[in-house]
Amino acid sequence: MEILDLLKEKKISQVTGLLDSMNNVDIATLLEEINLECAIKLFRLLKTDDAAEVFSYLNTQTQQKIVEIISEKEITNIVNELFMDDTVDLIEAMPANVVKKILKSTKPELRTEINKFLAYPDNSAGSIMTSEYLDLKQGMTVNQALERIRKIGDFKETVNSCYCVDATKHLIGVVSIKDLLLAQPDTLIDDIMTTNVIFTTTHADQEDVSRTITKYDILSIPVVDGEERMVGIITIDDIIDVIEEEATEDIQKMAAITPTHTPYLKTSVWRLWLNRMPWLLILLISATFTGLIINSNEDVLNLPVVGIILTGCIPMLMDTGGNAGSQSSVTIIRSLALGEVKLKDFLKVMWKEMRVAVIMSTTLAAATFVKLMVIDRLYNVESGFLIAAVICLTMFLTVLLAKIVGCALPIIAKACKLDPAVVTSPFITTIVDVLSLSIYVSMSVAILGNLYPAIG
């Protein structure tokens, strides 16, 4: 790598020139990939404002290593250049000894501001907002507003949207930089601002905030306290992180894994074991019901020829039922997460899924019949058509019930204030397996009982 070769040859001016030509995101990626000694040397060659931005893009582990090595003066320079939300994220992710070093390097007023942000609940709007927003005072002219933007805009997270407040910091409107540039200099911002402002509160859930920003297609959203006084803003880059984090968490829950925010390659083997094993043990215990049903119906499954055929179809029925149930549950869980489905939509969802289930059940039952006749050649077996009828009817009822359970369980979990992803996905397969085997045995007894007295 050219930049590392230049660093080894101590051609500092050329290294600095290369760093200046690189995007800060790419510099952060480079620092994460090289050894710590070289990373620190390159980091120290960055300009102060670039160093802060690069630092904000680094993963937690690299940030921690850098903070532990660099001087308090360097930490002060970084923290002073970071936006408040990035500073709070840094402190929340660091161990106590590193936090102590960071706070020691900050000014008292900044420390007070940081502590105020840390007091907000985890995953709330207050915990991810930044206090570096551009506010305009009621009664300002456009010219005065532009002067204020020129004066302080460089220190704010964004100037695309300027929030108008009264003398007591109450949010009264919003005006875009485009509207300010197109308006006459002596126009009052009160005359061009939008008063119907989309906003959120400090204690709102971050997932709700992400839905609001997505719904209204805005790049930032103001955050107000209980008295509707403006205290900060949340920008789209923070919301993208929230969406990614929430989606990852839902995927992990649906796979019966305890959620973790540590990157996979940075997670220890023991941590992965701890995250996965509890759910597998729970599912292992719940799966014993399947074994009990099979053991209690040995008279059906041990019959010559018939028993072999019926037993051989168990995996097909259980897997198809489990997959059908998972399709419905994942669809509904995601729709609940996106706000597309509400609790009041329970009957609509059930009616829709039932219709889908009937069509799918019929199709799969027909496909199963063709498979049994063409591939398994049950027409050559005594009572082959009746055996096929048992298997096909079981397939129909299994898929039908699996679809109903799969769509109902997430909504019921949500109504009980439980996480649908946690409650539904790990258990849907076990529930469907039990239903499938119970139906299978019942259908075998009902249809084949007269032909094979041992079954009855």
Short structural summary:
This protein is mainly α and 456 residues long. Helix content is 66%, strand content 6%.
Could you explain how this protein is built, in words?
The mean pLDDT is 84. This protein has helices at residues 2-8, 12-21, 24-33, 36-44, 48-57, 60-69, 72-81, 84-93, 96-104, 108-118, 125-128, 142-152, 177-182, 189-192, 206-216, 236-254, 269-286, 288-295, 298-301, 306-312, 314-338, 346-374, 384-415, 420-448; strands spanning 135-137, 161-165, 171-176, 200-201, 220-224, 230-235. The chain has a three-stranded mixed sheet with strand order 1-2-3. It is 66% helix and 6% strand. With 456 residues, it is mainly α. The protein folds into three domains: 2-119, MgtE N-terminal fold; 135-238, CBS-domain, CATH 3.10.580.10; 266-448, Tetracycline Repressor, domain 2 (Orthogonal Bundle), CATH 1.10.357.20. It is elongated, with a radius of gyration of 31 Å. It contains 24 helices and six strands.
CATH top level assignment of the largest domain: Mainly Alpha
Output the CATH homologous superfamily of the largest domain. Answer: SLC41 divalent cation transporters, integral membrane domain
**What can be said about the biggest beta sheet?**
3 strands, mixed
As a percent range, the share of strand residues is: 5-15%
Shape: elongated
Task: Count every helix, treating DSSP H or I runs of 4 or more residues as helices.
Answer: 24
User: In sequence order, what are the helices and strands, one letter per element?
Assistant: HHHHHHHHHHHEHEEHHEHEEHHHHHHHHH
Q: Report helical residue fraction.
A: 55-70%
